[in-house]
Specification:
Chain B: It is an enzyme of class 1 (oxidoreductase). Chain B: InterPro entries: 2Fe-2S_ferredoxin-like_sf, 2Fe-2S_ferredoxin-type, 4Fe4S_Fe-S-bd, 4Fe4S_Fe_S_CS, Beta-grasp_dom_sf, Helical_ferredxn, SDH/FRD_Iron-Sulfur, Succ_DH/fum_Rdtase_Fe-S. Chain B: GO terms for molecular function: 2 iron, 2 sulfur cluster binding; 3 iron, 4 sulfur cluster binding; 4 iron, 4 sulfur cluster binding; electron transfer activity; metal ion binding; succinate dehydrogenase (quinone) activity. Chain B: Its EC number is 1.3.5.1. The complex is a heterodimer of chains A (128) and B (248). By secondary structure, chain A is mainly alpha-helical. Chain A has helices at residues 21-48, 54-64, 67-93, 102-124. Chain A has 4 helices and no strands. In chain A, helix 1 crosses helix 3 (67-93). Chain A is globular and about 55 Å long. The mean pLDDT of chain A is 91. Helix content of chain B is 34%, strand content 17%. Chain B has helices at residues 36-46, 81-84, 110-118, 127-130, 157-161, 163-167, 174-187, 190-196, 210-214, 221-240; strands spanning 6-14, 22-30, 66-69, 72-75, 90-94, 101-103, 106-107, 124-126, 147-149. The mean pLDDT of chain B is 92. The chains are: A mainly alpha (128), B alpha+beta (248). The interface between A and B is medium-sized, with 27 and 34 residues.
């Protein structure tokens, strides 16, 4: 029957309709985890350029300094901040600490993540 | 004063005999201060006697009438129509999620009840043990020994809304874990920690807190699950040093 639990219903993890802020935190943690995992693979690929000699590595570094790639790196920083800060919240909540204020904690931590992302953006794109 | 009348459309999920699900619409005139269950019953009484749904007490004690109303899990006997739609609006009524549909709005809750039974939740508890410690500080010396029904009415809304329950049919679910916590608080029985401490128990919860958001009965399953984790970890650490009993 269609209504039963199934691993194929994982897409429901990413459906925020009619849900509370806790689900937004749940979704953000999963999306940022996927993003960070993909970045880790790309990072290892980039490091593999080292074995191809200085020319290959320098060419890759030149590419990494383009605005599109810089923006991608900013997303990685944002994902790291969101996932890390939210992870601290979940860690504390998981053992009963601060659970009654989990919504407020999430909002404050996401404001910190946003501020951190803006700080890095200003410095990465030379707006300072 | 003449009572207000709203015209609303009920779009009700129909499914039986393994046939694909479809939605059937019924237009009704209602008093917006009536409850969603009243409207569903009127559909059954005056429009379609083949509609299957569950209900019993009509005052949020039996937990039978849980449904998904406009995308949100609701105990329909205490959900005023005014709260979930507007005049000329629509009520989309679906069965609870994460339970097999038997027919229309009726779901098979047998696995849910088995988990509740396994949690050993006693339906009656001393008042100071039945209350949520975070909401109702226990009086230092209760004047009388009083008992009351525990809060969980076994409606299943928490399981329906839980994202972890959507993908794992072996997850025991928020209600049963909250029941185990309630019973652990009342008895201190270590076997309840053992029962909950596994990957399809306490550790399957991924902290979306939706169970607490939809609970119509102030059980606060999310808090109970997290607090039970604390007890489990504390007990495991203490057992490393030879302690066999939980800290009181």
């Amino acid at each position: 029957m269609m209504n039963q639990p199934s691993p194929r219903k994982f897409w429901r993890w990413f459906d925020p309709r009619y849900r509370q802020i806790g689900t937004w935190a749940f979704i953000l943690n999963r999306i940022t985890a996927i993003g960070l995992t993909v970045y880790l693979v790309l990072h290892l690929y980039m490091l593999s350029k080292l074995v191809q000699g200085p020319e290959a590595y320098d060419a890759f570094i030149a590419l990494a300094k383009t605005p599109v790639i810089l923006f991608g790196e900013l997303l990685v920083i944002a994902a790291g901040l969101i996932h890390g800060l939210n992870g601290i919240r979940v860690g504390f909540n998981s053992f009963g600490f601060g659970l009654q204020r989990q919504r407020e904690t999430f909002i404050v931590l996401m404001i910190i993540a946003l501020a951190g992302t803006v700080y890095f953006a200003v410095h990465m794109f030379g707006w300072a | 004063m003449k009572p207000t009348t709203w015209t609303i459309t009920l779009s009700i999920s129909r499914q039986s005999g393994g046939a694909p699900r479809h939605f059937q619409e019924f237009t009704l005139e209602v008093n917006p201060d009536e409850y969603v269950l009243d409207a569903v019953e009127r559909v059954w009484a005056f429009h379609d006697r083949s509609l299957n749904y569950r209900h019993a007490c009509h005052h949020s004690t039996c937990g039978a009438c849980g449904m998904v109303v406009n995308g949100v899990e609701k105990l329909t006997c205490i959900t005023p129509i005014r709260e979930v739609t507007r005049d000329r609006g629509t009520l989309r009524i679906e069965p609870l999620r994460n339970f097999p549909v038997q027919s229309d709005l009726v779901v098979d809750m047998s696995a849910f009840y088995q988990n509740m039974e396994a949690s050993k939740l006693n339906s009656v508890s001393p008042v100071e043990k039945a209350d949520l410690p975070i909401d109702h500080p226990t009086p230092a010396a209760p004047a009388v020994d009083a008992e009351r029904l525990v809060d969980c009415i076994e409606c299943g809304l928490c399981v329906s809304v839980c994202p972890a329950a959507a993908t794992s049919d072996s997850y025991v679910g928020p209600a049963a874990l909250a029941g185990a916590h309630q019973q652990f608080q009342a008895t201190g029985e270590i076997s309840l920690l053992d029962w909950a401490d596994h990957q399809d128990g306490l550790w399957r919860c991924h902290s979306a807190y939706e169970c607490t958001a939809v609970c119509p009965s102030n059980v606060n399953p999310a808090w109970r699950i997290m607090n039970l984790r604390r007890h489990v970890v504390s007990q495991r650490i203490r057992s490393l040093f030879g302690a066999k009993e939980p800290r009181p």
